[in-house]
Amino acid sequence: MSSESHELLVVKNLSTTFTTMGGPLPAVADVSFTLARNETIGIVGESGSGKTVLSRTIMGLQPRTNVSVTGSVLLNGNEMVGASEAAKRALWGTEVAMVFQDPMTSLNPVMRVGKQIDESLRVRLGMSKNDAKARAIELLELVGIPSPAQRYMAYPGQLSGGMRQRVVIAIALAGSPNLLMADEPTTGLDVTIQAQILNLLDDLKDRMKMSVVLVTHDLGVVATRTSRIVVMYAGRIVETGSTRDVFHRHRMPYTRALLESSPKVSNASHTRLVTIPGRPPNLLKLTDGCSFAPRCSFATDKCHTQRPELEAAGEPGHAFACWNPLPTTTEP
Description:
Helix content: 25-40%
Strand content: 15-25%
Oligomer: single chain
Structural class: alpha/beta
Shape: globular
Number of helices: 12
Largest sheet: 8 strands, mixed
CATH superfamily of the largest domain: P-loop containing nucleotide triphosphate hydrolases
Number of strands: 12
Number of domains: 2
Strand order of the largest sheet: 6-7-8-3-9-10-12-11
CATH architecture of the largest domain: 3-Layer(aba) Sandwich
CATH topology of the largest domain: Rossmann fold
């Protein structure tokens, strides 16, 4: 079943809990958001905030055992939560695809890159061997790899990190998916190559009319490439809104801490980065209060005992979860 509604992805009250030796670990807790067709949103947060588990849960890539998933993920009208492996496999590659953080863990090091694209085309789309090879070379050219016919025969280890990531993107695009999940797609690449990969994703999104979920710890990555941002902490959404509102009218202290810890081009060379005090929470030992309270200079007793829920911030679609929000600021 598919839907032609404005919303391609509808995530509602989604929770992912792992069973561990230490007890239940709520990696994602009661997350809700929507994604329109041809829209790009950013999911941001520190390591351990739940953003990668969220993206994998949306894809239906969670482990088969020791995990409980509740809530709903409607992808183009198809329910992913509770779907059979066969139903999810029918959607992977054609409705949704993922670009993972490290291309060397996504690519088979002893298989030529062209054959790895071929495999996706033949399995997902049922192409013949010759048609799959021709299309694979087209995809290599599409993602900006020079001499694509020659690169088709290369092994992953013969390519640079940026080239390997382009191959991973080519594999993800092989089935012309409606939604592309990009999980830290520029980690480990130098700044120039990062910009090239992000520009490529922007260009491909427009050319292929896809929606994109950009998962990252770096707010600078999503600053000019997303229409909306979802800020996560300890498995929950703590602020969400348009990119402009989150950057310039943020209310949650954690959002400000993320912004202040991001490197800035305007800083002098060798400027020491600002760090967020304290450590991320232990998800096995969460309290009833705000998870950020132990690290927050604005926290009061109420913050340590009662968890705030998301509330509207005034601007359409902008919401935050904080008992002592930052004052509204005038946009520069």
